[in-house]
Amino acid sequence: MTNEPPTKRIHTETDHQTSQLASYKGSPLELKCINTIRALAADMVQKANSGHPGAPMGCAPMAHLLWSAVSSGGVGRDHSAADPKWWNRDRFVLSNGHACALQYIMLHLSGYEDCSIDQLKAFRQLGSTTPGHPENFCTKGVEVCTGPLGQGISNAVGMAIAAKHLGATYNTTDFPNVISNKTYVICGDGCLQEGISGEACSLAGHLGLGNLIVLYDDNKITIDGGTDLAFTEDVKMRYEAYGWQVLTVDDVANGLDDLRAAIEEGKKTTDKPTLIKVRTAIGYGSPNKEGKASCHGAPLGASEIEAVKSRLYGLDPLKSFCIDEDVAAYYAQQAAEGDKARVAWEANFAKYMEAYPEKATELQRRFNQELVEGAFDDLPTFVYGKDKPDSTRKFSEACLNAVASKAPELMGGSADLTESNCCQIKGATDFQKASPEGRMIRFGVREHAMAAISNGMFAYGGMRPFCATFLQFAGYALGAMRCSALSKFGVIYIMTHDSIGLGEDGPTHQPVEMLESLRAMPNMNVVRAADLNEMAAAYQIALKSVNTPTVICCTRAPVSALEHSSRDKAMKGGYIILPEEGDGAPDLVLVATGSEVWRCVDAAKALQSEHSIRTRVVSMPCQEAFLEQDESYRRSVLPGNIPTLSVEASSEHGWHRWSHAQVGMTTFGMSGPLEELFVKFGFDAENVANKGKELVEFYKQLDGAVPDLNARPSFVNIKGSAH
Amino acid sequence: MTNEPPTKRIHTETDHQTSQLASYKGSPLELKCINTIRALAADMVQKANSGHPGAPMGCAPMAHLLWSAVSSGGVGRDHSAADPKWWNRDRFVLSNGHACALQYIMLHLSGYEDCSIDQLKAFRQLGSTTPGHPENFCTKGVEVCTGPLGQGISNAVGMAIAAKHLGATYNTTDFPNVISNKTYVICGDGCLQEGISGEACSLAGHLGLGNLIVLYDDNKITIDGGTDLAFTEDVKMRYEAYGWQVLTVDDVANGLDDLRAAIEEGKKTTDKPTLIKVRTAIGYGSPNKEGKASCHGAPLGASEIEAVKSRLYGLDPLKSFCIDEDVAAYYAQQAAEGDKARVAWEANFAKYMEAYPEKATELQRRFNQELVEGAFDDLPTFVYGKDKPDSTRKFSEACLNAVASKAPELMGGSADLTESNCCQIKGATDFQKASPEGRMIRFGVREHAMAAISNGMFAYGGMRPFCATFLQFAGYALGAMRCSALSKFGVIYIMTHDSIGLGEDGPTHQPVEMLESLRAMPNMNVVRAADLNEMAAAYQIALKSVNTPTVICCTRAPVSALEHSSRDKAMKGGYIILPEEGDGAPDLVLVATGSEVWRCVDAAKALQSEHSIRTRVVSMPCQEAFLEQDESYRRSVLPGNIPTLSVEASSEHGWHRWSHAQVGMTTFGMSGPLEELFVKFGFDAENVANKGKELVEFYKQLDGAVPDLNARPSFVNIKGSAH
Questions:
Q1: Do B305 and B442 lie in a common domain?
Q2: Could you tell me which of B687, B691, B690, B671 has the C-alpha nearest to residue B679?
Q3: Taking the complete model, does pTM exceed 0.95, yes or no?
Q4: pLDDT, average across residues A646-654
């Protein structure tokens, strides 16, 4: 299983080693396996000269058990290095992602190509497939990005939801195991202190996710010192309050019987998730650092590592990156058993395909992240002069339903704002403990977990999760939304009440900086549609962006009808929605998004009729899509050397790229009726027209010297994209 | 107490009213008081034609008790309309801020000028002092902005910490009550579902905050429907797991004895916080909507309100905004008692001032938010050629300690990264249950609560809280950081590891969009210092910005020494740190922040010596401060019509305002050593020099037509600032 021939042991056992073996209640090989993991973790961090040796050394016994194949009688996971994306693999999430040396070691021992011995030696180096925290897009066998604490365990809740839903939907009485995997997590106290995990685990308890087993590395140590500095709550009691089964294992360093029994119990309990509180010692085996914060986030040092190896049975104190033949053979055997399980599953799936071709094909399409044929055929079109204007959240509802009827992979819901967010799929039932086939999720008032759970559902496969709240409360979920973008998970965020236009609820609920926060984030689509046609484009962009999350921003209040809106043009991110009158370059360009577009159209018409200022209006629903167009198209829409005024009821920060002057927010909003707020803050057509006129006059005074916003070299991706 | 003469009752009691009174275990006046609150809430929402009547109607009995003065034998709060900022008032936080009609009514009944009957009638209207959610800066008597769920209860934890710390610091054996107030909270299930409240309450239990009493409005209803949709955990058990005393009150609609006893019990229990789970009915009294989600967030309707009034004892179904004389008199009496308590406290404080003039004066200074004289005198200066370069986080530590020794109001800590964030005040002890006089807080891995607790501490008064984590994890805390900015709370955020330069931990930990997220936020200082001198400016800006939070961004790795850095110049937000050689306008301007400044200096020197490109380097530690300078200064630093290249190891989004081209991030980072990353992403001096040269050549090809970035009208604050 290793890329180098196993090292032959030639050293003599130390007294310490003998005594460790003597007190160990289990086979010598088991102990040696676990010790080998510990030593490898210490070696990797030492070679990288940075990283976290303590947690892997303490958690090695858990990893050992979780990597024992079910099919060989172990209690652990079935998975396959030959097909890391095998649908029914048992998922594993290392929620304490800083312990990732452990994960890479286990992947190495199981034969995953991204974790060769050379890659273990390249731990945390630029370009390696063994980065400082687990990255799903970088390392095959890693399911999600973890490291930001609390994300992993919350992702795992999403994976368990996905598995339960898909099992309920696609399994049959004669094929009960098409989707039947379990999800395992190792997490530390950091993950449990984070609010996001409380949100996710409360929901997991409510939903009775019996396919989720969490091993809590209770090592009593945080970065600052003992957990008694800040974390003295009764975790067992809290998780029982959530409706979990909580089991306690007092020791894993001297034998695995208790942990094995606990995992068995967790697997047997199918009506609630299980938390196993495992008492461990951080940096186990380190004579001077075990049980101390000092082994959390720094290399142990060469001499300490030698001391570790001299104390742990089966290790050679003088060798690094050493995996003895018997150890390698053991894990190779476990991996082979896991792969056998996959092969057996595939044979079974072939029969399923014969018996239930429709279900099987749909499942294949879903796991391949392919859109159904004609996915966008039912998207509605707004007919000017005939259809009634409405809020863009109602338009979002129409589009969501138009695509959802064909795409069962769209599953999601709201953080307790279903009606306000207009995100109910008509006729769809709730995903609940008693109805796992339902596709609407009641997330509760838990925005951060909602986003992380959606990430987990996407990571599971076969899913296009959507989730919803007020745009302002994206600020509660940003930690997880960023993980969507980083992990390349095409989660769809429906964010309504997208400006001060939400009105009376006031500045606590009115987003100002949020659009810019999201636009500044790499690999994130932000779409703010001006009407139904642009909303159809938003859904098309979102669904096509399998590896990019999309935020669909919607108004609370109705927008006026637009004569020249276009789904196809909106797909380009920006387009001329009202051309200037007559020939030649316009005198003024207004560029706007969402609910400000129709006001700009009104302003432009007034400028033309009252002042003969030939004004163009550009609707720019998606900057990211616009930036992907070629330069000539972009210039044809936004010439750059024509006075350009941007209008968005949101922070003006970031708009200097596109405009010479901005009508935007520089303060927080206020509580009051929408139209009064729009006048107060200058987003009414009259003020826009006045400012447009001022802008034209300003440059006239400068003898027409309009700085050309397009006369800039593009230094984007100077050295190429990172990934 | 009302601005209008009390309305005389002329109607006849209905059967419903008689029966309500008959079953009520308490005085008729008490019931009438509570019913009056209910009716006023329904009236306010009806008149506003938007808002939340259900929670105030259900919570009215709690409010009634909390507004009964301690000094008159009640169990409630002592506070004073005559001096809403009286230091030792019992604090009240309405964590379910959408129920704010309730708070405004109680303030009205207590004689607070901002809540006159006219203001109750102007509820949720533009410019009123009764906005749609409570805003501390808008309404006297409101302590914090609530509405974003979970913030209020977390703020209250901060208030309780502040009270406990100040009490331990300033009370004496003979003056035990200089600071001795309690903090009361009403919250709903939404607040308890949010992760932030779990974080804050776990810490509150750990700290044994016996001065905190939370009334949980357990009405079993969320916006989407029954709480059984998503929230079935055992809240009592969870809070007991946190170490709280949890009491249960099954009914408050038919009498207050149980709740009164529970509050008494909560006040007696001084070693742990108390949660009182109060079973209520949302929209109590509404014949068709009581107990239903439909009365959560919409007016009841005129006929339903009439029906409510005809059912509730003491009300006239045909009158709106009606407060009978006896009701007004009762609350006026309570308010007077509260004010008496203040007067007595003031007399006591006068004696305290005589006995302990030093303590008393310091406390006054603190509550006045005045800096100690010479507050900045000890800030260090970096001497080029003599002092050793270091990371800016170490510089931050030096500056923090330089100001902290003189400013005891600086109290705070880290989310379990004390050493990494370099935020330990030397010699300071921890604030713990047994050591409330300590000023270092161990927040645990709880970023969101940390920020909200800091807000609460600031709101309490006498405090300049600071808190720390990695800059990337500001994304976890953004909901509360925004509340700092909105609420005008000068919290100091120390955010280290501020770019891809954190290195091996990789993209999950490397901020990219975070600086721009924060810069797009109104009323938020973002300072990224390039060396010790600029860091001293950062602390000076932060401390002087009493009503603006400041984020101090710090590097993990050392920065090279800068010859011309200046604390005074850095205070202006941007300045020339390396002038171009010779006379006349420069050929090129490089503008950078933090760890990129010295690289730009190196690049500029190379451009001069190798290509005779006369290059100016501008250091721009704080855009907000720079924008406050007059135009001539800004132009003297950044001419705008000279090719300008910005260099920041963060998203280039937002930099188009300042530069023609950007060296910035457009993707997430990677795991690897810092210097390799800086080369990979183009932030090394060599690449910066190359791009600078390219930029100069680009405009040469355009015959020197450099678009003038300053040739734009300023439309900032088009219609004036909101507040």
A1: no
A2: B687
A3: yes
A4: 96
* Nearest chain B alpha carbon to A674: B126
Distance CA B398, CA B61 (A): 52
pLDDT score, position A4:
53
Judgement on whether residues B334 and B401 belong to the same structural domain of the protein: no
Domain at B261, CATH number? 3.40.50.970
Q: How far is CA B569 from CA A298, B383, B473, B545, B633, in A?
A: 38, 16, 30, 17, 11
DSSP designation for A316: -
**Domain-embedded: residue B387:** no
A525-528 β-sheet, strand order:
A440-442, A410-414, A464-470, A492-496, A550-553, A525-528
* Shortest alpha-carbon distance between residue A65 and chain B (Å): 27
Nearest Cα neighbor of A409 from A457, A468, A358, A373 is A457
Q: CB within 8 A of A82, min separation 6: which ones? A: A339, A342
Domain boundary among B491, B521, B553: B553
Question: What amino acid occupies position A359?
Answer: K
Q: How far is B245 from chain A (nearest CA, A)?
A: 13
CB B134 within 8 A of CB B142: yes
β-strand pairing of B661-665 with B644-651? parallel
Which residue from B141, B197, B203, B83 is spatially nearest to B459, judged by alpha carbons?
Answer: B141
Is B722 contained in some domain?
A: no
B707 part of contact set with chain A, CB < 8 Å: yes
A164-223 tens-digit pLDDT: 999 999 999 999 999 999 999 999 999 999 999 999 999 999 999 999 999 999 999 999
> How many beta-carbon contacts under 8 Å exist across A and B?
446
Asked whether the beta carbons of B207 and B161 are under 8 A apart, the reply is yes
Q: Using a CB-CB distance cutoff of 8 angstroms, which residues of chain B are in contact with residue A513?
A: 482, 517, 520-522
Alpha-carbon distances of A106 from A62, A101, A102, A120, B637, rounded to whole Å? 11, 9, 6, 11, 56
CB atoms closer than 10 angstroms to residue A406: 16
Could you tell me which of A547, A721, A709 has the C-alpha nearest to residue A634?
Answer: A709
Chain B residues in contact with A705 by the CB 8 A cut-off are: 708, 711
Positions in chain B short of pLDDT 70: 1-11, 714-723
CB contact A632 to B (< 8 Å) = no
Which of these, B380, B409, B405, B408, lies nearest to B394 by C-alpha position? B380
Task: Provide, for chain A, the percentages of residues in helix, strand and coil under a 3-state DSSP scheme, each rounded to the nearest 5.
Answer: 45, 15, 45
A412 contacts chain B (CB < 8 A): no
Q: Do B665 and A522 touch (CB under 8 A)?
A: yes
Specify whether A238 is located in the same domain as A322. Answer: yes
B583 and B541 within one domain: no
Nearest chain B residue to A500, by CA: B722
Distance between first and last Cα of chain B: 28
pLDDT in tens, A407-458: 999 999 999 999 999 999 999 999 999 999 999 999 999 999 999 999 999 9
* DSSP per residue, B538-578: HHHHHHH-TTS-EEEE--SSB----SS--HHHHTTS-EEEE
User: Which residues form the domain of A631?
Assistant: 575-701
Task: Indicate which CATH number applies to the domain containing A586.
Answer: 3.40.50.920
Q: Are residues B266 and B201 in the same domain?
A: yes
Q: What percent of chain A has pLDDT over 70?
A: 97
A332-384 pLDDT tens trace: 999 999 999 999 999 999 999 999 999 999 999 999 999 999 999 999 999 99
Same domain, A531 and A621: no
- Cα B150 from Cα A466, distance rounded (Å): 24
Is B648 annotated as catalytic?
no
- Cα dihedral B79, B82, B87, B91, rounded to 10, equals 30
Q: Could B716 and A666 be called an inter-chain contact, meaning their C-beta atoms sit closer than 8 Å?
A: yes
